[in-house]
Amino acid sequence: MKIRLNDVVKTFDTFRAVHGVSLEIESGELVALLGPSGSGKTTILRMVAGLEYADHGHIYFGDEDATDIPVRDRGVGFVFQHYALFPHMTVAENIAFGMKVSKVKRTPEAIRDRVEELLALVQLSGLGERFPGQISGGQRQRVALARALAVDPRVLLLDEPFGALDANVRRDLRRWLRKIHDELGITTLFVTHDQEEALDLADRVVILDKGNIVQEGTPEEVCRAPQNAFVMKFLGDANALPATVRDGKAYVQDIAFDAPDLKDGPADLLFRPADVSWRESGDGVPAQILRVLDRPDSRRVLARTTGGQSIEFDTAPEFPHKKGEQGFLDIRRPRVYATT
Amino acid sequence: MKPHHSGRRPPRIGDDPLFRRVLLGVVLFFVAVIIVAPLAVIGVQAFSKGLPYFAGAIAEPDTLHAILLTVLTALIAVPINTAFGVAAAWAITKHDFAGKRLLTILIEIPFSVSPIVAGVAYLFVYGLQGLFGPALESAGIKIMFALPGIVLASMFVTAPFVARELIPLMQAQGRDLEEAATSLGASAWRTFFSVTLPNIKWALLYGVVLCNSRVMGEFGAVSVVSGNIRGQTNTLPLHIELLYHDYDAVGSFAAASILATLALVTLVVKVALERQGAGRSKRPATLAGNDTLSEVKP
Hints:
Chain B: Part of the ABC transporter complex CysAWTP (TC 3.A.1.6.1) involved in sulfate/thiosulfate import. Probably responsible for the translocation of the substrate across the membrane. Chain A is of the alpha+beta class.
């Protein structure tokens, strides 16, 4: 089921949470809404679900205008951030709930078979008689997913699906959710503030800031060509150096970088910690090493330029230089954005 | 320094033996003097002239009538106020509407207003010289100095009891469960009975017990609107006072012991229901947040 948002606006009291957002999600696609807290991503998800109504604009499911269809009839599966499992029902009863209250009548046998099938799908066979309080967080998450899938939703919506879990469980569940999505082919939209999660899981990432879409594209597109400094910084660690643009070149302490499409004036030069090499002599931004941090697969070096800017960069574990040494930063793949 | 496990360890905060004894002593003293002693005296006094006299005092027609009237009042007022309290808590915690805070404050008014003020206010509204008094009189409806007035006054006094028990709990529970049920296709009624109610039942029960005890025991508001007609509009608390003024100490204490017993019965019913409920769901004591149970790898 294709989902289309057309100029959707939502205001809470005096706070405008979502400013005219337009977005298309193709049938069968897995899309992430990525943004910091307060960016409006959860509000958008809740409007698609029908848990909030848009103040303005339209939401279409396929060709049908779903803007004013109540959540009960909208046919969405919603997985809540804290799962919202019914604590007084067993896992099996939780999963069966949607089928029991459905307008489509099913026999108790049919419901029982479907519950077993879903328990197998989420790899929880045999735990149907447990209560939500008796299973782990990761298991609860999967029960919530099974419960949402039980009503054969047209779209699947997940609000910070892995937010409350440990890093390890989180990564496993992420890969597993991708597998389930590929098996079922259901149009899926999920919200996250974790860029790694979005890039790892989604076909397409929609990056939001202050209620607006700042960029959307495949993980490759947003990673390789961040549209502005916000996206660049939000997607991962980034260093920033103040620069001045003159005639298509950005200058940082007399070192020139290409900036072909920028007007003359102040700008920021942004680059990733992995795109810096340390040189004892030659070209580059002069700097001094402040600290060296060890990580399992690399060394991170904290340095300060002679202009007083803090820079972090990653090196091989064998990096021989120590605190206090002077040298030069060779910067690769920098991106220059006009200062806003 | 090596830790020494033998001998006396230094006390933790508030763990000083002297402090603990004093604390416990003060609490026990207050419980004994303020709560237990008066109740014990009622029991002793009620039976001071022997069981037959006690039975005779209870069987007194006016006393019997007062007991029945009190139970009848509770049977009407408690269910209505329970329904009102649940509806109010549901509206306030799970829905958004203009004037919500005002409603929350209005519900609390009976807590801060003296019951006697409520009684007098009802008199002004429904009494013969009151607002609707003449109209009701000509329609042949009697509210003051009759059962409807007693029920109304009792309901005013106990209106907040159920709502006040439920609102904090339902606020803490949030709306996620209701939203989940609705997104799965459940109607509002279905959501309430299958999802909301099972999660508030113990708080609801407690609210009902408190409401019931207060309805049965209400004195001030009822004494204004009932007219204190013996054998007609005298509820048990009013009757106890009447007997006391008649210098019928034993009769008064016997009636008081009945009132205390009625309250105890509600408490016992509550505890029994809780036990049964806990047994039925067959859940172990460790309910929430037990993440250490055998994790099945995804």
